[in-house]
Amino acid sequence: MDRSKKESTMARFKKEFTKGLIISNPVFVLVLGLCPTLAVSTSIDNALGMTLAVLIVLLGSNIIISAIGRFVPNITRIPIFIVIIATLVTVVNLLFHANLPDTYESLGIFLPLVVVNCIILGRAEAFASKNSVVYSIADALGITVGFMLALLMLSFIRQVLGTGSLTAFGIHCFTLPVLGEHPISIFILPAGAFLVIGLLMALFKRTGVIKND
Amino acid sequence: MTNLVAIFLGMALINNFILVRFLGLCPFFGVSKKTNSAVSMGVAVTLVMTISSLATWLIRHYILIPYDAEYMDIVIYILVIATLVQIVELFIKKTNLELYNAFGIYLPLITTNCAVLGITLINATQGYSLSGSIVAALGGGVGFTLVLLMMSGIREKLELADTPKSMKGLPIAFITAMLLSLAFIGFGGMI
Q1: Nearest residue to A203 via CA among A28, A32, A19, A18
Q2: Are the beta carbons of A133 and A59 closer than 8 angstroms?
Q3: Residue A172: its H or E element
Q4: Is ipTM > 0.90 here?
Q5: Which residue of chain A comes nearest to B26, CA vs CA?
Q6: Which of A142, A180, B34, B97 is the most buried (most CB within 10 A)?
Q7: Torsion over CA of B163, B164, B166 and B170, rounded to 10 degrees?
């Protein structure tokens, strides 16, 4: 009896984790948090830095909000959630400033803007406030990995086509033959972000990876 | 004075909030299907951006900096914005019911619009004066409204166009945004 219950907990944990990857991918399916996604997808470094910030804030807010969810009066829940999230973002902001100064500089105002990232408040409201701590952790991890996948896809395409080479964490990976000398710089410009996400979304719809309307 | 004009044009056109800075994309794609709602949203955002720029400038220079509490800016700003949105909503509801109905759901949604928190953070990092902050907020709001209006006009026409099935909806909206963004690069050499 006890054993089967434990197994079902594991199964549910797995289910909540995997749903964030594709079925409800935050970027391509739920279309949440577009601003940071498009703004920081100019390089792999920025994409991973943003993912780390979202991971810490989302994990923290999901844990805290699922733990206090039933004590929070319904009418004041949104301000309470926002203050919790803003506090976590302040912590992340200070941590990045002290330990990852380069990432802090290149993310710019998009690091403090994690506060108004719809993914975080959206998960707090739609999932964490109604579910237990364990499942909220699974949800946070799944959504973050889904966010990371989308962000890596976008930034890989934009960095490789826009600069003709790939450099991550200061390590030079490769330089493309012709593009290295004549990169298609539109991909690094803001316009390139709109182009790449539009085409990727159309491709996923065409191939049936995502089914949203 | 020329400085203020430069800030205004820089915020409205050269560093347009939506197309260049990627701030406020959720309402940009969510509310740009009808021209009327696009204008309401744009005006509401401009109003809240201007008032919160004024309020956060005063708080920053008379409370946060004297007491060395600048590290608290994110928490304070988001609370100020949330409170201001509530006050503006109540004020409009009491004074002009027609306008209130025109804004509808868009007014409360502005709290989580990154353009509003964005302008307060930009004002702080750029170190604008009080008048500079207000002009920057107005410029940003005007640029936001302009792009929202253009996008809604295009999308109304796009509804009738024969787009491929997999491009319908958001993908074609992204491509349209890309073309608009390309056009706005042209403002780059203006100042």
Answers
A1: A28
A2: no
A3: strand A171-175
A4: no
A5: A34
A6: A142
A7: -10
What is the DSSP-derived secondary structure letter of residue A33? -
Residues comprising chain B, all counted: 191
Give me A73's structure tokens.
Answer: 């009066």
Residues A69, A60: Cα–Cα separation, whole Å: 14
Q: Are A128 and A61 in contact (CB under 8 A)?
A: yes
Rg (CA), chain A: 19
What tens digit of pLDDT does each residue of A62-120 get?
Answer: 999 999 988 888 888 888 888 999 999 999 999 999 999 999 999 988 899 898 888 88
CA distances (Å), B113 to each of A179, B85, B129, B132, in order? 38, 11, 24, 22
Helix (H) or strand (E) holding A173: strand A171-175
CA nearest to B18 within chain A = A35
Contact between A191 and B122 using a beta-carbon 8 Å cutoff: no
Which residues make beta-bridge pairs with A175?
A: A165
Q: What are phi and psi of A168, to 5 degrees?
A: -130, 135
Residue type for position B52? S
Residues contacting A66, CB < 8 A, separation 6+: A128, A129, A131, A132, A133, A135, A136
Contact across the interface for B166 and A206, Cβ inside 8 Å: yes
pLDDT of A213 higher than 60: no
Q: Give the tokens for residue A93.
A: 């902001």
Token digits for B4? Answer: 């203020």
Q: Are A148 and A26 in contact (CB under 8 A)?
A: no
Q: Which of residues 3-32 of B touch A (CB under 8 A)?
A: 19-26, 29
Q: Which residues contact B188 (CB under 8 A, 6 or more apart)?
A: B14
- Residue B78 in tokens: 């988001």
Q: Is the pLDDT of residue B138 over 90?
A: yes
Contact status, residue A26 vs residue A112, Cβ threshold 8 Å: no
**Domain residue spans in chain A?**
12-159
